[in-house]
């Protein structure tokens, strides 16, 4: 709360605090830790802290059956701490500290339920994020060309230099791994193996937005350069791919993960066009309603006896009215329902896209992805809220988890008023976007069309067999995120493993073994066994050898 009030103060007075804290001063060496407090970092910090407090409160009941609940809470707190470090540091080295802290703690949280699936997901998450960590380390190495690692001072001055370009592209690579843009997208749905409170805090509002936040700090480098255009293409495709994937997915948490991915694509793409304030705005509103969506999903899974399949749900609006109300509000906020949180940021982003100078392909990606968002949201509501319950008739569905509900209602309040509040705060003069009527209504039209499509796809009365079976190969391709999880696991590991097998067969167990140690040992053993046999078993041969030996010795002496 204090952070929030401070950020208001900084925002209204247009202030930035740059604090240097001398950690060690030894003779002529001084190690200085720098912190940057401006409206962005303070606002983001206040949101992270608010969501974290509600999530920890929520997990008190959600994880109540866990013996090691204290360890879980400590992990979440460590996560929040590294996030704080990342948010307030203007220095690449301390950013790396926070960044690596995030990666490590997120790995520990993904493998929290210890089974094979969790370990695989954790490994994929950790290794995908490793690429980004290495990119940041390389960026730190490139920063050695300048006087210090405080990138804040160099961004504008050195904008067009080759070194700054290298640093910018490396930071962009790091942000793309952390925010799961296209080549690295497969880890985000896999990370849903974590407990639901973790998904609500880590994989919706904070960890995945760290990459976007870092790029917001580096936004000067993106505008008017090839990097911005490249990022626009990749993030637009990410948004499109995640939207399509979510329409064919049946796992509740994975659908929400894919929707997070598509919103991240939206933030990244608007950021790459140079509108960093809009990206920040959407980042904050998205954090609110997505954390709420995950918490509702968690409550539903908790009550459904840990089943995540949406085909088994149905009629939840009767059995769990409060949870369903929160779920629907957050879903509508995600779709951009007028006057909820998501509407202000999404609508503004799409109108800015309309007046911007971008090509037809990007324009299509933006609007089609928005339609897909509404489409999978309506499909989700159709499967989970309407009709009858499809799982066991003996169920324990109740809406009595008051601790969970309190956590959800806190976020529900913010999901409703958060967007308009931030809109008044971040933009002191309202954006006046003047467009013809049909373009103004285009966003609304796309949303309604998407919703109708989602309803039609899910409607079983329309066509009794599941429509995805008609085009099975196509559905399989779209539903598995364009085969990305396969490419980033089997695809990478196949060739090294097959080469390893060849090398092992031909070298380690092949000729080198035959002419090397093992074979020599074998031959020596055979000879010694032969001699042992000779000496022990046959006195005649032994004496004969003795005579031969004396003859050889004698002849040797004679010829000397």
Automatic annotation (TrEMBL):
<dbReference type="GO" id="GO:0042773">
    <property type="term" value="P:ATP synthesis coupled electron transport"/>
</dbReference>
<feature type="transmembrane region" description="Helical">
    <location>
        <begin position="226"/>
        <end position="248"/>
    </location>
</feature>
<feature type="transmembrane region" description="Helical">
    <location>
        <begin position="31"/>
        <end position="57"/>
    </location>
</feature>
<feature type="transmembrane region" description="Helical">
    <location>
        <begin position="94"/>
        <end position="113"/>
    </location>
</feature>
<feature type="domain" description="NADH dehydrogenase subunit 5 C-terminal">
    <location>
        <begin position="376"/>
        <end position="556"/>
    </location>
</feature>
<feature type="transmembrane region" description="Helical">
    <location>
        <begin position="438"/>
        <end position="457"/>
    </location>
</feature>
<keyword id="KW-0679">Respiratory chain</keyword>
<keyword id="KW-0999">Mitochondrion inner membrane</keyword>
<comment type="function">
    <text>Core subunit of the mitochondrial membrane respiratory chain NADH dehydrogenase (Complex I) that is believed to belong to the minimal assembly required for catalysis. Complex I functions in the transfer of electrons from NADH to the respiratory chain. The immediate electron acceptor for the enzyme is believed to be ubiquinone.</text>
</comment>
<feature type="transmembrane region" description="Helical">
    <location>
        <begin position="322"/>
        <end position="343"/>
    </location>
</feature>
<keyword id="KW-0830">Ubiquinone</keyword>
<feature type="domain" description="NADH:quinone oxidoreductase/Mrp antiporter transmembrane">
    <location>
        <begin position="89"/>
        <end position="372"/>
    </location>
</feature>
<keyword id="KW-1133">Transmembrane helix</keyword>
<keyword id="KW-0813">Transport</keyword>
<dbReference type="InterPro" id="IPR003945">
    <property type="entry name" value="NU5C-like"/>
</dbReference>
<keyword id="KW-0496">Mitochondrion</keyword>
<feature type="domain" description="NADH-Ubiquinone oxidoreductase (complex I) chain 5 N-terminal">
    <location>
        <begin position="25"/>
        <end position="72"/>
    </location>
</feature>
<dbReference type="Pfam" id="PF06455">
    <property type="entry name" value="NADH5_C"/>
</dbReference>
<keyword id="KW-0520">NAD</keyword>
<dbReference type="Pfam" id="PF00662">
    <property type="entry name" value="Proton_antipo_N"/>
</dbReference>
<feature type="transmembrane region" description="Helical">
    <location>
        <begin position="200"/>
        <end position="220"/>
    </location>
</feature>
<keyword id="KW-1278">Translocase</keyword>
<keyword id="KW-0812">Transmembrane</keyword>
<dbReference type="Pfam" id="PF00361">
    <property type="entry name" value="Proton_antipo_M"/>
</dbReference>
<feature type="transmembrane region" description="Helical">
    <location>
        <begin position="281"/>
        <end position="301"/>
    </location>
</feature>
<dbReference type="InterPro" id="IPR001750">
    <property type="entry name" value="ND/Mrp_TM"/>
</dbReference>
<dbReference type="GO" id="GO:0015990">
    <property type="term" value="P:electron transport coupled proton transport"/>
</dbReference>
<dbReference type="GO" id="GO:0008137">
    <property type="term" value="F:NADH dehydrogenase (ubiquinone) activity"/>
</dbReference>
<feature type="transmembrane region" description="Helical">
    <location>
        <begin position="403"/>
        <end position="426"/>
    </location>
</feature>
<feature type="transmembrane region" description="Helical">
    <location>
        <begin position="541"/>
        <end position="559"/>
    </location>
</feature>
<comment type="similarity">
    <text>Belongs to the complex I subunit 5 family.</text>
</comment>
<feature type="transmembrane region" description="Helical">
    <location>
        <begin position="69"/>
        <end position="88"/>
    </location>
</feature>
<feature type="transmembrane region" description="Helical">
    <location>
        <begin position="477"/>
        <end position="499"/>
    </location>
</feature>
<feature type="transmembrane region" description="Helical">
    <location>
        <begin position="363"/>
        <end position="382"/>
    </location>
</feature>
<dbReference type="GO" id="GO:0005743">
    <property type="term" value="C:mitochondrial inner membrane"/>
</dbReference>
<keyword id="KW-0249">Electron transport</keyword>
<dbReference type="InterPro" id="IPR001516">
    <property type="entry name" value="Proton_antipo_N"/>
</dbReference>
<feature type="transmembrane region" description="Helical">
    <location>
        <begin position="134"/>
        <end position="152"/>
    </location>
</feature>
<comment type="function">
    <text>Core subunit of the mitochondrial membrane respiratory chain NADH dehydrogenase (Complex I) which catalyzes electron transfer from NADH through the respiratory chain, using ubiquinone as an electron acceptor. Essential for the catalytic activity and assembly of complex I.</text>
</comment>
<feature type="transmembrane region" description="Helical">
    <location>
        <begin position="255"/>
        <end position="275"/>
    </location>
</feature>
<protein>
    <recommendedName>
        <fullName>NADH-ubiquinone oxidoreductase chain 5</fullName>
        <ecNumber>7.1.1.2</ecNumber>
    </recommendedName>
</protein>
<feature type="transmembrane region" description="Helical">
    <location>
        <begin position="164"/>
        <end position="188"/>
    </location>
</feature>
């Amino acid at each position: 709360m204090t952070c929030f009030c401070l950020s208001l103060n900084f925002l209204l007075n247009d202030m930035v605090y740059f604090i240097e804290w001398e950690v060690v001063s030894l003779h002529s060496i001084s190690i200085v830790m720098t912190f940057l407090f401006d409206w962005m970092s303070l606002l983001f910090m206040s949101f992270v802290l608010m969501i974290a407090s509600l999530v920890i409160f929520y997990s008190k009941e959600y994880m109540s059956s866990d013996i090691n609940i204290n360890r879980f809470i400590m992990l979440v707190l460590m996560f929040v701490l590294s996030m704080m470090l990342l948010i307030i540091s203007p220095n690449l080295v301390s950013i790396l500290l926070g960044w690596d802290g995030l990666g490590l703690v997120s790995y520990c949280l993904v493998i929290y339920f210890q089974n094979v699936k969790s370990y695989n997901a954790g490994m994929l998450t950790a290794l995908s994020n490793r690429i980004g960590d290495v990119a940041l380390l390389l960026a730190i190495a490139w920063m050695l060309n300048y006087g210090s690692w405080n990138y804040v001072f160099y961004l504008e001055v050195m904008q067009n230099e080759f070194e700054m370009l290298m640093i910018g592209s490396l930071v962009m690579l790091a942000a793309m791994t952390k925010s799961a843009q296209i080549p690295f997208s497969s880890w985000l749905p896999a990370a849903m193996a974590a407990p639901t409170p973790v998904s609500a805090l880590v994989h919706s509002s904070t960890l995945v937005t760290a990459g976007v936040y870092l790029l917001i700090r580096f936004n000067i480098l993106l505008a008017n350069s090839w990097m911005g255009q490249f990022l626009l293409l990749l993030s637009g495709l990410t948004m499109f791919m995640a939207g399509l994937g979510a329409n064919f997915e049946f796992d509740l948490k994975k659908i929400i993960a894919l929707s997070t991915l598509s919103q991240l694509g939206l933030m990244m793409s608007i950021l790459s066009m140079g509108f960093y304030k809009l990206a920040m705005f959407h980042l904050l509103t998205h954090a609110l309603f997505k954390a709420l969506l995950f918490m509702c999903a968690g409550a539903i899974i908790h009550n459904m006896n840990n089943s995540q399949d949406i085909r088994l749900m149905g009629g939840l609006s009767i059995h769990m009215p409060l949870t369903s109300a929160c779920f629907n509000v957050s879903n509508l906020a995600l779709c951009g329902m007028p006057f909820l949180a998501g509407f202000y940021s999404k609508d503004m982003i799409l109108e800015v896209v309309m007046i911007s100078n971008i090509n037809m392909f990007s324009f299509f990606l933006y609007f089609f992805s928005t339609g897909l968002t509404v489409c999978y949201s309506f499909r989700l509501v159709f499967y989970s809220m309407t009709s009858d319950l499809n799982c066991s008739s003996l169920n324990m569905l109740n809406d009595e988890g008051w601790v969970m509900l309190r956590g959800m209602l806190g976020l529900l309040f913010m999901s409703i008023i958060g967007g308009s509040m931030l809109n008044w705060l971040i933009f002191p003069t309202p954006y006046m976007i003047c467009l013809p009527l049909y373009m103004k209504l285009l966003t609304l039209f796309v949303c309604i069309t998407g919703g109708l499509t989602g309803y039609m796809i899910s409607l079983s009365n329309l066509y009794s067999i599941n429509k995805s079976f008609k085009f099975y190969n196509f559905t399989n391709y779209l539903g598995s995120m364009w085969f990305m999880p396969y490419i980033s696991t089997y695809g990478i590991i196949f060739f090294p493993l097959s080469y390893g097998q060849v090398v092992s067969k031909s070298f380690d167990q092949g000729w080198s073994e035959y002419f090397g140690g093992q074979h020599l040992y074998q031959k020596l053993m055979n000879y010694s066994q032969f001699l042992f046999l000779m000496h022990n078993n046959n006195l005649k041969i032994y004496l004969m050898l003795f005579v031969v030996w004396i003859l050889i010795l004698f002849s040797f002496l004679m010829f000397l």
